[in-house]
Amino acid sequence: MLFRKLLLLTTLLIYCGVLVGCGKDSASERRVLLATTTSTAHSGLLDHLINAFTESTGIRVDFVAVGTGAALKLGEKGDVDVVLVHAAPAEKEFISAGYGEKRIPVMYNDYVLLGPPEDPAGISKCSSFQDAMRSIAEKRAPFISRGDNSGTHMKERACWDLLGITPSGSWYTEAGQGMGGCLLLASETKAYVLSDRGTYLSRFDDLAIQILYEGDPLLYNPYTIMIVKRNLRPDGNYAEAKTFADWLVSAAGQERIAAFRANGKQLFYPDAEGKYAQ
Q1: Phi then psi for 88, rounded to 5 degrees?
Q2: Are 197 and 110 in contact (CB under 8 A)?
Q3: Boundaries of each PBP domain copy (predicted)?
Q4: What's the pTM value of the predicted model, to 2 decimals?
Q5: How many whole angstroms separate alpha carbon 166 and alpha carbon 266?
C-alpha cells in the first residue's frame, strides 16, 4: 500500500513539475512538451530516444508519462505539443475530433500475459488470447488490471467485451497504476497481468511472474505519434514538435529504436512504414 501511494505521488509531482513553466517564455532554449505512456518511460526507451534527439537537434524534450487516455486528454486541452501513445481506436477519435493533425506510425512491440509459474488458470496451454482470458475469469484466478484507461487497459477491456465478460469480484483488482507498479503488485500477489513486453523485459529480474501466454495477433501493440493542432496550443512549440515527430520516423530515430536493449533483448521494433499500425 505504501509503495502504491509513493508511486502515485511521484507521478503527480512529475506531472505538475513538467506542466509548470514549460512554455517558450520560461527559457531561451528550444523545447517540446510530450505526453506519452508509462511503457515508454518505465522501459527506459524514452530517455534513450530523447538523449539522442536533443544531442542531434539541440531541442529539449520535457515529458509526462501517464496512461494513454490521460495523455490524450492533455492533448485535447492543449497542455502538450505532441502525444506518443498506443491505442488505435482512441487515437482515431482524437484525430476525428480535431485535436491532432494525423497519426504517424513509429514502432511496435507486443503484449504478453504474465502470471505465477504454477499457472493455476492453465493459460500456457490455451490456443488464443481470448481463451486465456476466459480461463482466468472462469477460474477466478487473481488478475491485476491497470484500471487507468491506458492503452494496456483498453486492450484488456476490449478482450473482456469480445468475451461478453464483465470482470468483478475479489479476484479482479483495478490497481489504477502504471505498468511498472502493476507488475510489482502482480508479482507480490501471485496474480495474472497483461503487460507490454518492453516494460516486463526491462524489469523481469525483480519479478516472481513470467510470460505464460504470447504470440496472438490480437496482442500486437503499435505506437503512433500525433502533433496537437496549433489552434489548441497557439503559444506552444509546434515547429519543435514536428521536428521531434520527423526525427522519430527518420533513419536515425528508427535505428535508435531498434538499438534499444534491456537485459540483452530488443524491446521495441521500428515501424515508420506502418506495417503493424491498426
Answers
A1: -55, -50
A2: yes
A3: 27-251
A4: 0.82
A5: 35
